[in-house]
Amino acid sequence: MEAPAPAPHSPAETPLPGVTAEFTVTSPEQMQELGRRLAKLLRAGDLVMLNGELGAGKTTLTRGLGEGLGVRGAVTSPTFVIARVHPSLGGGPPLVHADAYRLSGGLDEMEDLDLDVSLPDSVVVVEWGEGKVEELADDRLHVIIHRAVGDTTDEVRHVTLRGLGHRWAAVDLAVLSA
Ligand SMILES: Nc1ncnc2c1ncn2[C@@H]1O[C@H](COP(=O)(O)OP(=O)(O)OP(=O)(O)O)[C@@H](O)[C@H]1O
Ligand SMILES: [Mg+2]
Questions:
Q1: Under CATH, which architecture does the 19-177 domain have?
Q2: Which of 8, 90, 103, 148 has its CA 20 to 30 A from that of 111?
């Protein structure tokens, strides 16, 4: 008798509870537009964690967030800088854009960035922050970007937004596609 087939590979992360919304994005421009729209829902104190493989579009989405928030300076992929503060050009909160890719440790290593100090007055967006910055806030917006498998163009991305905690409980993420 044959051994049973192995269970399909499941990601290490357990499903998080919370409000979710899913979008299909077909170009970098659309990803940026999603960021611009998402920015309208964000306020000081929000922690946004971006999850997705290299080149998924995390920085592209953040560029749109920066535009939507009306902050100064182009959002780029930092090569040496781990976190960059983009002050608001208006009266809104600054955008703190962190990329934890090169950080191997946990929150200890992130401590130098003082994200906990920035968070109450800023929108903090972290790429590659899984397992590193969750302790900053119980209320978090997770954005998971997947490259489409088997899609005809390589510009298709599936984006899942998952809001955790009271902050996001009553937020209708579906407005982002309207
Ligand atoms: N639908 C899409 N959304 C976002 N980016 C796309 C899309 N289709 C193609 N791209 C391209 O994929 C690349 C995404 O790069 P980006 O720097 O945003 O990714 P990243 O997730 O931040 O990567 P890294 O993990 O290296 O920081 C860009 O070159 C962009 O033009
Ligand atoms: Mg990036």
A1: 3-Layer(aba) Sandwich (3.40)
A2: 90
pLDDT of residue 105: 64
The helix (H) or strand (E) run that includes residue 36 is: helix 28-39
pTM: 0.89
- Domains of the chain, by residue range, sit at 19-177
Per the CB < 8 A criterion, the answer to whether 48 and 137 are in contact is no
> Is residue 58 lining ligand 1, measured as CB closer than 6 Å?
yes
Cα distances from 74 to residues 62, 71, 93, 122, 134, in angstroms, run: 10, 9, 16, 17, 26
For 127, the enclosing helix (H) or strand (E) is: strand 123-127
Probe target for ligand 1 pocket from 26, 31, 36, 60, with the most ligand atoms within 8 Å of CB: 60
The per-residue pLDDT of the chain, averaged, comes to 88
Atom of ligand 1 nearest to the CA of 52: 21
